[in-house]
Specification:
Bound molecules: zinc ion
Distance between the termini: 36 Å
Radius of gyration: 16 Å
Number of domains: 1
Shape: globular
Strand content: under 5%
Helix content: 40-55%
């Protein structure tokens, strides 16, 4: 028998875990639940998620879309809007944002990549959010 102790790294913002530290560092900086996330999709360095969430709560999705058309930034705003509004649902590492402020992220991402035709971003995004 072989017994191994392993180190697992967890995101401070969601419940995602990884055995690889660099992968978790990268995830955490871009995590949709990180209030100052760097966006890997639209390449915004420091997204003010709370401001976007407040805009969504106050003026709705169209107002938010006039500020950003990035699906990942819009998804993060939805998650924050739920948090600010006190809507809680069980979370998991593959949480796709199906909460009270619902946003069809996957559909929006397909549209985004088709429009930008950015295969590099798609490859990087896949499985990272
Ligand atoms: Zn996370
Ligand atoms: Zn973005």
């Amino acid at each position: 028998m072989t017994t191994k102790k392993v180190t697992r790294h967890y995101c401070d913002h969601c419940r995602k875990g990884s055995f690889t530290k660099p992968r978790m560092v990268k995830h955490e900086s871009r995590c949709c639940r990180n209030p100052h996330r760097a966006c890997g999709v639209c390449e915004t360095e420091n997204t003010d998620v709370e401001a976007n969430a407040k805009l969504l709560i106050a003026d709705g999705l169209d107002a938010l879309k006039s500020k950003t058309d990035c699906p990942a930034c819009i998804l993060a705003a939805h998650m924050m809007a739920n948090k600010l509004s006190g809507y809680t649902t069980p979370r998991s590492s593959d949480d796709d944002g199906t909460e009270f402020f619902y946003y069809d992220y996957k559909e929006a991402m397909r549209g985004w990549f088709a429009e930008k035709n950015n295969a590099a971003v798609l490859a990087d995004w896949h499985g990272n959010y």
